[in-house]
Amino acid sequence: MTINEQQDEIIEEFELYGDWMDKYEAIIQLGKELPLIDDQYKTDDNLIKGCQSRVWLHSEYKDGKVFFTADSDAIITKGLISMVIKVLSEHTPKEIADSDLYFVNAIGLNSHLSPTRSNGLLSMLKQMKAYAVAYQVKELNTQNNG
Amino acid sequence: MTINEQQDEIIEEFELYGDWMDKYEAIIQLGKELPLIDDQYKTDDNLIKGCQSRVWLHSEYKDGKVFFTADSDAIITKGLISMVIKVLSEHTPKEIADSDLYFVNAIGLNSHLSPTRSNGLLSMLKQMKAYAVAYQVKELNTQNNG
Amino acid sequence: MSAELNIEEIRKDFPILDAKVYGKRLVYLDNGATSQKPVQVLETLDNYYKEYNSNVHRGVHLLSQVATEAYEAARKKVASFINAKHDHEVIFTRGTTESINLVASSFGKLALKKGDEVLISAMEHHSNIVPWQMICEDKEAVLKVIPMNTNGELLMDEFASLLTDKVKIVSVTYISNSLGTINPVKEIINQAHAKNIPVLLDVAQAIQHVPIDVQELDVDFIAFSGHKIYGPTGIGVLYGKEEWLNKMPPYQGGGDMIKTVTFAKTIYNDLPYKFEAGTPDVAGAIGLSAAIDYVNNLGLENIQQAEHELLKYAMKKLSEVDGLRFIGNAKEHASLVSFLVRDIHPFDTGDILDKQGIAVRTGHHCTQPVMDFFGIPGTVRASFAFYNTKEEVDLLAAGIEKAVMMLS
Amino acid sequence: MSAELNIEEIRKDFPILDAKVYGKRLVYLDNGATSQKPVQVLETLDNYYKEYNSNVHRGVHLLSQVATEAYEAARKKVASFINAKHDHEVIFTRGTTESINLVASSFGKLALKKGDEVLISAMEHHSNIVPWQMICEDKEAVLKVIPMNTNGELLMDEFASLLTDKVKIVSVTYISNSLGTINPVKEIINQAHAKNIPVLLDVAQAIQHVPIDVQELDVDFIAFSGHKIYGPTGIGVLYGKEEWLNKMPPYQGGGDMIKTVTFAKTIYNDLPYKFEAGTPDVAGAIGLSAAIDYVNNLGLENIQQAEHELLKYAMKKLSEVDGLRFIGNAKEHASLVSFLVRDIHPFDTGDILDKQGIAVRTGHHCTQPVMDFFGIPGTVRASFAFYNTKEEVDLLAAGIEKAVMMLS
Ligand SMILES: Cc1ncc(COP(=O)(O)O)c(C=O)c1O
Ligand SMILES: Cc1ncc(COP(=O)(O)O)c(C=O)c1O
């Protein structure tokens, strides 16, 4: 699935939910399902600033694709992370760097997210793209030197 | 004339004036008539704080009575000073210290005086009473020692 | 509902209490962060701007005179509200934070030398920590901390032994904004004064809840914010004893705080102007005065009683919630509750409460060291004002139950 | 009346202009001290308090979210009004005075050492003198002054020679509040930058009259007050280039300006929060934003034109008054006139004008050194806003004639 196909799937899924409670329950459920980050990666280096809750984000680069894992001490945050990871993980650095994440708006979440929460989400997205760009640069350097 | 008789005279006089212009013209006229302070007394020591205009106040103690002279660089201030001097000058220290100056309110001036102006007036009254008290103390000391 | 206050009627003074969030009626329980404003305050602001807005002091014209009188009457109102000996002991600032910064900086310059100590407590708001850290760093002085127990009560024995000759000032909060603790400030002041050490009280969370008499307390400085006592944002108060304020160097320089200026030498003005550089927040001061009128009108004792009843009720209702534990169990407790439920993150609880229209605060409440002490990421805090009702407490309790259901 | 602005209609936005003083309609010509507020600003304040008043930042609930967004939108509005490169280069303060104090203190700590110099001008407001005197005294630095001629124009040759390597910052006013001089700020900045010296512009009297583009000017800091640009009292702005603000130490400590606090070590927050300790004046910032909307709506160019016409007219009318002399005859001149008549004390003139309902300012206008330079006790100052009319200028001229008649 491409990044956009994944987003569209989430949007479709959320269309089924009537009110905020259903949506939140779905998010919380996703939070519970999030494959946890390996404890060794729960370091201060992997901590993302700008959240009332703490978020750790770890990335790995394998076979031309970026793999993200993450965790948070707050479950709703975890649910949000989980969606973002679903959308962005296992794509090429270029796909990630170029991606336009429209699903957050589309599922009507942003109007429900506290600014602290959306700032957190934003920080995380920024961080993920930064990783992607870093891998892109690395790739280029490898190619140039190779 | 006692202090209060002098005040009542001013009040009576001001009852003749209809509007603020008449009152102000009378005050300005008084300002022009104020016997000027001797230039040697226009010192920083005799300067009174709290005025947008400058006021010099000099006092002398003679034959049991206090004599005030004063000057200001603003004519309306001078007029106000002139009234206060008329009321308080040439009285005993005790009379001055105990005096209650009701004429300022009675002639309806206070509602016309800018706060800067009334602060100035207040500072001047304070200063005059301070002089009177000082002479009282001096008197007492002289009596005690004498 | 209090015996004395007709809350239903009173609520009509606060238009925002009718607001809807997510289609539900707002339940505003974030009064510790900022209070709502009665129409009496809003009308005062509006009148000021529509009828006599003008720059104060030194103005020759009538508008300026009227504005100056109103501004100085506001100072007088504050002075008599806290029973200050002199009006000029009341300095208008932007808020508690600026008031404390003023003292830290000016008192610090006056009195702090290398090796001296400043004594604060373990439950201070960042605004009563960081200004002292900054001046201590500047003066190579040392910041010491009165510890607390796990109920959130100061250890007064420790306080006594920390109170050495090195201490130049004690600065503590009257009421903790994250724990609700009411500190034994009278005793703190007495002990400090026995050693000639002045005391600053951060009354940001007290001024709207308990009567404060600075002369009876004999406190040297108090600091509070207008916005927490039903007044406008942007205005606050520093009270300082005349002796101290006269000795301290000015804080900011500029218009109004000087007597004469030449490029060579500047003579500072008398109190209170010496500490009020620049055009003050005239509307803010007048608005604060209207807020104090409002409080006086209800009666601080009546307010206290109504809030105490709310607190008791909330404690009872919330302790019935399975797995809920209070953070801060001091015997002397103000009308706010800080809590956590099971192992649910406070941010999650607060979020679900918000979606139900219930406004609480979550996080460290600008008291990170308190959270570190308890080893928690933060708390959920519901803070009550007299205009809150038992029905709202019921909604809070039900809202928490719902959050627990969804989150665990 | 301006070709572009319908002043008669515009005046309806300002309820206070219909006020009566001593039974006469107010003629408000003290706009340099503070400006009046349009209903658009007052309604914004009222709405804020009635609909979404809440403490900003870190709030989990909707009200706090809406208030935070409005507060940050106000910052963005200011940033785009002055064309700042980044929103976070805009710091909300209480006013010009506090903005300058912030820079004097924080920049002073960063950059001033013994023997260094700070360069201001002979026509500065006390608020741009005293803060520098205070930090210079602290750092044993020297305050130097760019002189002016008897027209009230800076001597640019002298400026060039004062601009030595010892100078660490130049701080001058864009427009003089007592003389009306518009200074050649672009040239001042260029010359200072050629020597890598940063420049602060006090734009308290400029922001409401002339378009200001901080990037085009390449100015390092600007300071202004909301209350002089039709906004509420108690709010002001410091703009600073990101590089400088990042380098400078924080000014006040407290809530919001920190990232993490322990008693041992505090990490400061990023811009702009690093410089905004404590609960900000949320309503003030939002009100200022509404004032900027109002100005943008009229168009600053239109305002400039209307005020220029008023100035020209006032100059002509007043110069017809026998014995009147202007203090400040700079070629580049803003819409205010400072004057004296014969040997009449300005306080007397102002007093008689006041009794006729005409509000002017008298005295030293917080620029005592300017009065010392001219050897006068003060001036009478009439300062115009776009809502003033030629009829009001006529009333002023007639009022002065009457004052002269009574006083001489
Ligand atoms: C040129 C100038 N600078 C600074 C100030 C001080 O502004 P504020 O009193 O609003 O801080 C003023 C206004 O009085 C001014 O005209
Ligand atoms: C105990 C305490 N001190 C200080 C403050 C800071 O007040 P402000 O942000 O209004 O300056 C607060 C409020 O947040 C507080 O609760």
UniProtKB/TrEMBL annotation, chains A, B:
<comment type="similarity">
    <text>Belongs to the SufE family.</text>
</comment>
<feature type="domain" description="Fe-S metabolism associated">
    <location>
        <begin position="11"/>
        <end position="130"/>
    </location>
</feature>
<dbReference type="InterPro" id="IPR003808">
    <property type="entry name" value="Fe-S_metab-assoc_dom"/>
</dbReference>
<protein>
    <submittedName>
        <fullName>SufE family protein</fullName>
    </submittedName>
</protein>
<dbReference type="Pfam" id="PF02657">
    <property type="entry name" value="SufE"/>
</dbReference>
UniProtKB/TrEMBL annotation, chains C, D:
<dbReference type="InterPro" id="IPR010970">
    <property type="entry name" value="Cys_dSase_SufS"/>
</dbReference>
<dbReference type="InterPro" id="IPR015421">
    <property type="entry name" value="PyrdxlP-dep_Trfase_major"/>
</dbReference>
<dbReference type="GO" id="GO:0031071">
    <property type="term" value="F:cysteine desulfurase activity"/>
</dbReference>
<comment type="similarity">
    <text>Belongs to the class-V pyridoxal-phosphate-dependent aminotransferase family. Csd subfamily.</text>
</comment>
<feature type="domain" description="Aminotransferase class V">
    <location>
        <begin position="27"/>
        <end position="396"/>
    </location>
</feature>
<dbReference type="Pfam" id="PF00266">
    <property type="entry name" value="Aminotran_5"/>
</dbReference>
<dbReference type="InterPro" id="IPR015424">
    <property type="entry name" value="PyrdxlP-dep_Trfase"/>
</dbReference>
<protein>
    <recommendedName>
        <fullName>Cysteine desulfurase</fullName>
        <ecNumber>2.8.1.7</ecNumber>
    </recommendedName>
</protein>
<dbReference type="InterPro" id="IPR020578">
    <property type="entry name" value="Aminotrans_V_PyrdxlP_BS"/>
</dbReference>
<keyword id="KW-0808">Transferase</keyword>
<dbReference type="InterPro" id="IPR016454">
    <property type="entry name" value="Cysteine_dSase"/>
</dbReference>
<keyword id="KW-0663">Pyridoxal phosphate</keyword>
<dbReference type="InterPro" id="IPR015422">
    <property type="entry name" value="PyrdxlP-dep_Trfase_small"/>
</dbReference>
<dbReference type="InterPro" id="IPR000192">
    <property type="entry name" value="Aminotrans_V_dom"/>
</dbReference>
<comment type="function">
    <text>Catalyzes the removal of elemental sulfur and selenium atoms from L-cysteine, L-cystine, L-selenocysteine, and L-selenocystine to produce L-alanine.</text>
</comment>
